[in-house]
Amino acid sequence: MSAPELKVQQIHHVAYRCRDAKETVEWYKKMLNMDYTLAFAENHVPSTHEPDPYMHIFLDAGNGNVLAFFELPTKPEMGRDENTPKWVQHLALKVADHDTLVAYKEHLEANGVEVLGVTDHSVFHSIYFFDPNGHRIELAYDDPDSAAMAAKAAQVKDAMLAEWSQTKRAPRHADWLHAKELEEL
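Structure tokens predicted for VOC family protein (185 residues):
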């Protein structure tokens, strides 16, 4: 018997903490039209066996992707890494096209959610907002020319990483990606 190839197939699920499982399910259903698919609740953590009640909820993020949350009522109030800017840690979800992105923006704003964007990343275009738990969410669609642009950017990825590793300053190899977005600066 040969050894299996060590290659990840896809993300099974991504899990975050939430303040209130029911509120989180309802928000993701209403705001992003995600289906609530599964829940686990235990008084002991299966992996560590420690006594700690939790609710673990699962939402369908499309295409076999699962977004999960844990509500942990016995733990201190959730926080965030104060040394990392709020814009860094986020979950990006793909939508079909520009019209869908704009429709989501309008839907979110009509429901009182503050939305940033549409931001032009050339390869893709995005909006950003926060869920009720303080997690930053990005909705993005691929530009119709994304394959060609991604191939062009991929050609310089190694040189960019090498230069960044030495200088910790932004290499200019792919500055065209955000040229339109940043031309006002």
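The helical segments are 21-32, 98-110, 146-154, 157-167, 179-182.
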